[in-house]
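Comment thread on ticket #2218

A.B. wrote:
> Attaching the input chain for the structure job we discussed in standup.
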Amino acid sequence: MAPASFERVGTPGRPWDAADIATWRSRQLKRRDYAVDVLTRVDALRERFDVEEYGAVTYDGVRYPFMAVRSRHWRDDRPVMVVTGGVHGYETSGVLGALQFLERYDDATGRVNLLVVPCVSPWAYERIHRWNPDAIDPNRHFRADSPAAESAALVRLLAPLGDRVRMHIDLHETTDSDETEFRPSLAARDGKPYEPGEIPDGFYLVDDTENLQPAFQHAVIEAVARVTHIAPADANGEIIGSPVIAPGVIAYPLKALGLCAGITPARYTTTTEVYPDSPRTTPEECNEAQVAAIHAAIDHALAHA
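C.D. wrote:
> Ran it. Output below, let me know if you need it in another format.
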């Protein structure tokens, strides 16, 4: 299901004011159901996991609980592995991949403490959008005093874990709608000209420039390559404007940019990006790519303490 096409809001060259944001919000219609698609599947996991509500938001009279799934036999002497999906609600495989991983996961070995948040941004999930109702991108605002309630709640959830978090993988997609809807919307919101970009065809990862872990990224890329194709560099040796530092890998300063994968002091961090609009893949294959990435990330983090 594609997001609505871009409709200009506000005055070109001028950042949106409160009235512009209200106009934009009024155009965001519910197009799928968080309770049906996500909460029912999370609820079904209670037989094998501990499920908790770690916060909630209410928008236009509708309450959206934030849900986390934990290993049942949690022990403080085990490393914590964090998986997050749905930071951007329109990036469907991040949500479904996290749920599929949980539904298949066998925790019988008790090697790790697993903490999974399948859908960080439920309002945006229902509207197939990147932003929350205040036109804020949660993935630029992961800090304790965040103006995005979705981001602040996740920061509070993870804060007590401290340096026990060994790995955090954040599941995302890059889609054609980034260019047809979301980047034009961002330019309009900020009162800037829209500059077209190039959508990479395939899966790639975002490492942390302040904590590069090339072997970890390679392990994830290698696992995903068995499921779907890896994005090549463009003619400039880049992916989405960033230099390719290894096949299928770019890097951002995660913490400085307020990105989800930078919340904790984990040694191993990455952001996945699949491309579900590619003619070379399917939505189901993209979900499987996310599952493969999670497994590879946990295995590498365990093998390289």
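A.B. wrote:
> Thanks. Noting for the ticket: Strands lie at 49-59, 62-71, 80-85, 113-117, 165-173, 204-208, 238-239, 242-243, 249-252, 268-274.
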